[in-house]
Amino acid sequence: MPRRRYGSGIAAGILAIAVLTSCAASSERRDQVTEEVTRFETALQAGRNGRACAALAPSTRQELEQSARSRCERAMSEQQLPQAGAVRTVDVYGGQARVVLEHDTVFLARFPAGWKVTAAGCRPRADQPYQCEIKGG
Asked: CA–CA separation, 118 vs 48, rounded Å?
């Protein structure tokens, strides 16, 4: 059976389509992550703790409730989270994301139901992991 050879123009075209498809998917994921963080931060600022709790990943919600020894809604109201401000950067790595805001950094993970917050109220530390007010176990 003879082998087919593709010209460099066809190969370049296939590569360009793959790159554009990848960029579109990345852009779509960044938009989804940004929307989820915006909903989470808006709920926090409005005192809608039930909505903020619904945005948390299951292990993050469980950790918050265990450490506060109360339901998520009450525990959320006791947190000293900063007013986050505007989104500065969004980084998506597969099923993980980091959103850097003016006064906060929020981490998310992709679940079957969508993006969920795994950590919030996070501050960078020199040569160490972020220090987060809300985080999963």
From this structure: 18
